[in-house]
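Lab notebook page, bench 4
Experiment: in silico fold of construct C2
Operator: M.H.
Input chain length: 109 residues
Purpose: comparison with the prior construct
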Amino acid sequence: MPDFTIALQSFSEKYRYKYLALYHALRTAIHNGTLPEGTRLPATRELAAMYGLSRGSVSQAYDMLHAEGYVSTIVGSGTFVTGMLAPRQETSDRKAQVVLSPWGRRVVS
């Protein structure tokens, strides 16, 4: 699969672990349409050889993408992009409603 390229270098500078850099590079490529739905990803051994990674790092990244629904695996056929999911909205600026017990209210006051 010589025409398969992702921007791994830019993510390698940002993430300490190679599997995280690969995961984010693949996820970004799916989101921006570089890897459209139905695209067959290289086998773990092939992708590892292309980017100088271990098969374990590639497997970890594929597992993370699979867990989030970005890819699906068909035994004997390969790993395929299932489609672009909407990025998760960060809710860090919203405070969660916390219900305190009577004792908790006394402690806080």
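Observations: Residues 8 and 22 are 6 Å apart (CA to CA). The first helix runs from residue 8 to 14.
Next step: discuss at group meeting.
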